[in-house]
Amino acid sequence: MFQTSTHDRNRRSPQPMVTTFGHGPLRTTVECVVALLLAVLLFRTFVAEGFMISTGSMAPTLLGFHKRVACPKCGELFAYGTAWDESANHLAASSSEFEVEQSICPNCSQQGIDLSHVPRNHGDQLLVNKQAYLWSSPQRWEIAVFRNPNLPTEAYVKRIVGLPGEAVSIRNGDLWINGEIARKPLAVQRTMWIPVYHQEHRPTHDTSFQDRWVSTDGWLEPTSNLRGWRSSPTTFLFREQTAGGATEALPAISSDSEQNTTSQPAGQTAVAAESSISWIEYQHWVRSGGTHITTVTLEEWPSDLQLATLPPSGLKYDSKTKKLSSFGVLPDDVVSFLKTNSQNLVFLQAINKLKAASHLAPITDSYGYNLAANSMEPNSVRDIAFVGELSLPQDQGRFFIQLTDGLERYTLDFDSQRESVRLFLEGTDRPLRVGPWSPPERGQSVRIEASMIDRQVALAIDGHEVFPAWPISAVPPGAESPRSPVRFGALSGTVRISNPTLFRDVFYTFQRSRHAVNRPYPLGPEEYFVLGDNSPVSHDSRQWEKPGVHRKLLVGKPFLVHLPSQPGRLKIGDQEWLLRLPDFDRVRFLR
Question: Topology of 193-240+273-288+380-505 in CATH?
């Protein structure tokens, strides 16, 4: 125990020479500022911290420095990644520090969109929960911020795909764990969907563009009383035949139980027996380019045209198989050359047929975000999701969605009379899945989400899964991806489908990769394998010398995109300045 001596108690100590603020407003203000700074410092150190993304390795989920582009043909808004320089203190897109680029619309494939007058945006700013992984472990498909294992002074953001102790591999664009495909739940799929085509952004004033949703029976006029589909810019309407003509006899609908029995003849499927279904098919029409091969039959090459005189075009003829083929879309100038130099009508008919068919291509893993000049050869994608708003009668009405991977076709049968949805595989007569659903009331609609992603078929109505996803077998390597991966149809009732939209999944590329490609990569007990959503340009565990991210390098889990900005202009007289303005549309929570 310490005590104060008598001498010390009796001695008068001099008063300290200090300057005080007293107890007035100034002192209170200073104390508040200091307390706020300490609170912010403690909050950033132990709770949450902000990070800004500079690159596009997670696009379009998270954006780096980019330009927001509006396609002049279809009006689609999309982000296009730009070069960035930390020393730049302005946003002038015309600055010599930035190379002027031309972009390609990911919705309608319009090329050569001029970006010279489009201002540059800063990247997304993330708020990261630094406590997220102190008491729990990261889960597969979560987005995480971590220190680069090869350069710990840098903070990266990627998606965690491989967990400690697992063997990770990439095959045909999919993730495989311990020899089995890793299937994303539908809730995770939604966070990673990449738009392929929005019907509401169809280029209505572009005569060169061919509609991608095509009625296989032809479109009817809105006032027609015949049975079939009518089309408007964003909505497709099916009606049965009305007064003015005899109603077409429809096949009987089986009254089997919801469990797997049918009354169809042997060898027929429950769906195939209903031959009167009217279909609208998605055809992935592209303007030009591509790496797909299209063939038509041609008995012989015309005698008035020498193959050696053809311009470089990817056009080939095989006299043994009698096949005329083109690589990508057959160019217009080549077609003009052929029509000018040959009078063979059979040949010219084959060229016209080949030209039309060559515009239909598989969906690819192209990104509107990426620089077209630096993009690698695209990969065809078969993992797609269909989304639309459905309305049909409660007492009668049959609606169908068919999805195909190019080998197998799966049909979702929406029956309002039964109040059920059944999943069939083409060629079988027993449903694979059966789930309940309540048709919407008159004038109302429901949101349909049907996907064939990660080798499974999933369905949700108004955000709720109708039945467990149905797993399907892996696709053999080299199998061609479909050019018409989805269609929807109606059998009876008045059916309306609005704003149909097609999405695709991330295709994990193997170019320039050395880990988890040629053979599975085994992770250590505290290591994680990470990948970027913008797979063609993402530098991640596939390329790093040390591919595994150790747990101690994890910074936290981002949960909010906050304070994003958009360029604004301030003009006073002849002077103009570009400003950073808040972009509240981009503020969102991350799952």
Answer: Jelly Rolls (2.60.120)
Annotation marks residue 57 as catalytic: yes
Q: Could you give the 3-state DSSP secondary structure of residue 516?
A: coil
pLDDT of residue 510: 86
**8 Å CB contact between 488 and 400:** yes
Residues 285, 290: Cα–Cα separation, whole Å: 11
| Set 67, 158, 184, 355: catalytic member | 158
Q: Which residues contact 14 (CB under 8 A, 6 or more apart)?
A: none
Closest to 327 in 3D by CA, of 379, 292, 284: 292
pLDDT at 112 over 80: yes
Confidence of residue 489 (pLDDT cuts 50, 70, 90): very high
Over residues 156-200, the pLDDT tens digits come to 999 999 999 999 999 999 999 999 999 999 999 999 999 999 999
Amino acid in the structure at residue 582: P
- Other Cβ atoms less than 10 A from the Cβ of 474: the count is 13
CB 376 within 8 A of CB 511: yes
CB 270 within 8 A of CB 429: yes
Bridge partners (DSSP) listed for residue 113: 103
- Fold annotation for 39-64+122-183+509-590: Umud Fragment, subunit A (2.10.109)
Give the CA-trace dihedral at 123, 127, 133, 137, to 10 degrees.
-60
Q: Which of 159, 131, 135 is CA-nearest to residue 49?
A: 131
Catalytic site residue 420?
no
Provide the residue type at 502 as one letter: L
Better pLDDT: 477 or 332:
332
User: What is the rounded CA–CA span in Å between residue 202 and residue 233?
Assistant: 7
Sequential DSSP letters for 469-511: PEE-PPPPTTPPPPSS-EEEEEEES-EEEEEEEEEE------T
Backbone angles phi, psi at 345, to 5 degrees: -65, -40
pTM, entire model: 0.85
H or E element that contains 389: strand 384-391
Domain ranges of the chain: 39-64+122-183+509-590, 193-240+273-288+380-505, 293-360
Long-range pairs for 269-275: beta carbons < 8 A, 24 or more residues apart: 269/424, 269/426, 269/427, 269/428, 269/429, 270/413, 270/422, 270/424, 270/429, 270/431, 271/400, 271/411, 271/413, 271/424, 271/426, 272/426, 274/250, 274/398, 274/491, 275/251
For residue 195, list its beta bridge partners. Answer: 503
